[in-house]
Specification:
seven-stranded mixed beta sheet; four-stranded antiparallel beta sheet; globular
Length: about 130
């Protein structure tokens, strides 16, 4: 059974950093594009960033460019999201999601991803 588990969230002050992890089980991660999404209270879930199955292609939402970095370690079956220069508006539940590589690379749309983790809370506040 395909399963994704996020971790690494927490409370951080503005300007701080966090590293989120998305660990996969039940499938081989290198067969999937992985995306990170987030949902703030009262708002729709939005795409943050994605990485292709090989790691050779990445996409970022304009709101996080230059501050967030996605990476993957296929040997560990894990994708990471480094969050730097955090702002209060980054506060949200962060989710990772998987899309089979054979369906082609696409990013930032929730409808393009099939399997989701349970999310991890990131709160940016002083």
């Amino acid at each position: 059974q395909l399963q994704l588990v996020e971790s690494g969230g927490g409370l951080v002050q503005p300007g701080g950093s966090l590293r989120l992890s998305c660990a996969a089980s039940g499938f081989t991660l290198n067969m999937y594009t992985i995306g990170w999404f987030r949902q703030a209270p009262g708002k729709e879930r939005e795409g943050v960033t994605c990485i292709s199955n090989s790691g050779g292609r990445t996409t970022y939402a304009d709101s996080v460019k230059g501050r967030f970095t996605i990476s993957r370690d296929n040997a560990k079956n894990t994708v990471y999201l480094q969050l730097n220069s955090l702002k209060p508006e980054d506060t949200a539940v962060y989710y990772c999601a998987a899309r089979p590589w054979i369906r082609g690379y696409t990013c930032l749309s929730t409808t393009d991803f099939d399997s989701w983790g349970q999310g991890t809370q990131v709160t940016v506040s002083s």
